[in-house]
Amino acid sequence: PEAITVAELANRMAEKAADLVKSMFKMGMMVTVNQTIDQDTAELLVEEFGHNIQRVSESDIDIDHTTDVDPEETLKPRPPVVTIMGHVDHGKTSLLDALRGTDVVRGEAGGITQHMGAYQIKTKGGDFVTFLDTPGHAAFTQMRMRGANVTDIVVLVVAADDGIMPQTVEAINHTKAAGVPMIVAINKCDKPEANPQKVRERLLEHSIVVEEMSGDVQDVEVSAKTGKGLDELIEKILLQAELMELKANPDRMAEATVIEAKLDKGKGPLATVLVNRGTLKVGDILVVGTESGRVRAMLDDKGRQLKQAPPAMPVEVLGIGGVPMAGDLLTVVESEQRAREVSAYRQEQATAKRTAMAPASLDTMFSALA
Ligand code: GDP
Ligand code: MG
């Protein structure tokens, strides 16, 4: 027989735990909210409160869509998502800032920028590119460990005056392990002591053969300081993206990945998310990690209010009940009832993981329908 806590059962019935305790007291049972009760007692309570008993199967609750693949005909091209990696001081932050500066939309909007962990630019040619503004492989590895593979392309920054350094090698290894294609940006080419050819030669030692050396890894000489090579870098990113035929179904309930999240004193929990598929809309009911909520408002990286966010668009979401974690999956669901079920399920999974206990068998767990 499976057991469930009074609090958990109350949560699933959307009733107050105290009311359940009271009701059980009337039935002659003395329990506290954190106490577990057996299946028979739980069923009794569900009936007592006038709900229907519904057993939830694992496939029902698998909203993480591991098995749910969008049919080919629903897929439309989407922008690439790019992460910049490289050794400290080789110019990752400078390059991200310089690339942000090439955004034609930002030019029109007057250049207000809010930092939110990711941004999207519209290129001169009208294409979109999304950059994760969390440089460094720590973020990249952490996201991957949490099962979030959001990066399509890695731009490896190597300073032409410093060459291949330990973190350059680490970045190469992480990128290879992730199976993500790489573009090498040889930075600081404005410096008199810059030696881009040496960088290309040294990359051979790590099995990176760039185009200039007749290989198939694209490389480009840039300067984040002068802006040299930035257009070419964007062109190469778009070329790589084209080869990958990146697509997603925009016409479905959204799924997104949390890039970063924080608690804002005025606005409450804020999460920057990147839409993986579907279109995220204001008013959507969602579950994110173990939190749930409703999209109250969405802002882009230019501080503009959005009503909708398509695949590969990063947005800041207001209206989540708590602060989720980077790498958490956000899923839009059809009802608040469903959101409660799913967040309860995920909380249980998280607790089971924490206490290193096997999670309760799901097909014998209950949920209640109002
Ligand atoms: P990060 O640690 O990789 O994020 O590197 P930063 O972007 O913070 O850059 C480190 C230093 O290199 C800063 O002093 C930058 O101003 C400088 N820097 C970055 N890119 C360039 C460049 O293209 N040319 C020159 N001359 N300096 C650069
Ligand atoms: Mg930096």
Automatic annotation (TrEMBL):
Binding site for GTP: 86-93, 133-137, 187-190
Subcellular compartments: Cytoplasm
Signal peptide extent: none
Domain Tr-type G, first and last residues per copy: 77-247
Similarity-based family: Belongs to the TRAFAC class translation factor GTPase superfamily. Classic translation factor GTPase family. IF-2 subfamily.
Function comment: One of the essential components for the initiation of protein synthesis. Protects formylmethionyl-tRNA from spontaneous hydrolysis and promotes its binding to the 30S ribosomal subunits. Also involved in the hydrolysis of GTP during the formation of the 70S ribosomal complex.
Name of the protein in its database record: Translation initiation factor IF-2
Organism field: Novosphingobium panipatense
Taxonomic placement: Bacteria, Pseudomonadati, Pseudomonadota, Alphaproteobacteria, Sphingomonadales
Residues of the full protein shown: 345 to 714 of 923
